[in-house]
Specification:
Layout (H helix, E strand, L loop, with lengths): L4 H16 L10 E4 L4 E4 L4 E4 L12 H11 L13 E5 L5 H8 L3 E5 L3 H10 L5 E4 L8 E8 L5 E3 L8 E8 L2 H8 L7 E6 L5 H6 L2 H4 L2 E7 L11 H10 L2 E8 L3 E7 L7
Parallel strand pairs: 4-5, 4-10, 5-6, 10-11
Antiparallel strand pairs: 1-2, 2-3, 7-8, 7-9, 11-13, 12-13
Helix pairs in contact: 2-3
């Protein structure tokens, strides 16, 4: 049996990159195929379920590199230390890239995604990982809202809050993060290392629905970019709310997204 030397070298190079976090400029050989559910991509080491082939460009240096990039965007492992058994809440988890990174670094993750198409990918991508997955739209109260899902994509937003992608509107039963957390971890006293993610402009409303758990959250890392109606950012609303609740704004990153990172000054584990 002949062995393709080039493919073998590429395979083991990708394994080394994934294990030792070697940043290489060489592009990966990315293969994709579509089944009845979605599009899958493979970089010769990992396979990931995505919504469509238009996302493949995000993985040209490999899936592991993409996960590390997103972790860095949210300050994970640098500004926010992630240790084994840390509890993470990933809001607007999309297809699960941040959730996967946190799980592979030993965290215990509550992963929440409102878009049903993205959620199907999230389930497939996080199968076997230490993550509790919820298909819920997060809001400031438990009530019905009109929620728009992008046609053929993973973008989604609450009508009246975010800029609307072309898609289909549905009336859904939205929940507070407090409610979802209680469902996932009933009467659990553990601290929460961080709430991380992007809820497409509804970050202020997300926090209003997190009053119960906010006091035991050590860090917040949210995408507060210009996604509210009129391309307005949610940064000031989020920053002001967190300051009133004794959080310190640690970082504001502009990396194609405007990421706000804050720490809880009341939490005894945050130095």
């Amino acid at each position: 049996m002949k062995i393709n030397k080039k493919k073998l070298v590429n395979y083991f190079s990708n394994i080394l990159d994934a294990i030792f976090i070697i940043k290489r400029d060489k592009k990966r050989i990315i293969k994709s195929f579509t089944d009845k559910i979605d599009t899958k991509i493979n970089d010769s080491v990992f396979t990931l379920n995505v919504i469509n082939k238009g996302k493949i460009i995000n993985y040209e240096r490999g899936i592991a590199q993409r996960l590390r990039y997103l972790a860095n965007v949210y300050g994970l492992g640098s500004v926010i230390p992630i240790n084994r058994k840390d509890r993470i809440i990933n809001v607007g988890a999309n297809i699960g890239e941040v959730t996967i990174w946190c799980c592979l670094n030993g965290a215990d993750v509550l992963s929440i995604e409102g878009n049903p198409y993205a959620f199907e990918c999230l389930k497939l991508n996080c199968y076997g990982l230490n993550a509790k997955l919820f298909n819920e739209v997060l809001w400031k109260e438990n009530s019905k809202v009109t929620f728009r899902n992008q046609n053929g994509g993973t973008s989604s937003t609450i009508v009246g809050i975010g800029d609307l992608p072309p898609g289909l509107d549905n009336v859904v039963n939205a929940k507070t993060l407090d409610s979802v957390y209680d469902e996932a971890f009933q009467n659990d006293p553990n601290d929460i290392k961080s709430i991380i993610g992007d809820v497409e402009g509804a970050e202020p409303e997300l926090l209003l629905g997190s009053k119960k758990i906010l006091k035991k959250v050590q860090y917040i890392s949210l995408d507060c970019g210009p996604e509210r109606i009129g391309k307005v950012t949610s940064w000031e609303l989020v920053a002001n709310y967190l300051k009133k609740n004794n959080f310190e704004i640690m970082s504001s990153r502009n990396v194609g997204r405007r990421i706000l990172i804050a720490r809880n000054l009341n939490n005894k584990f945050v130095k």
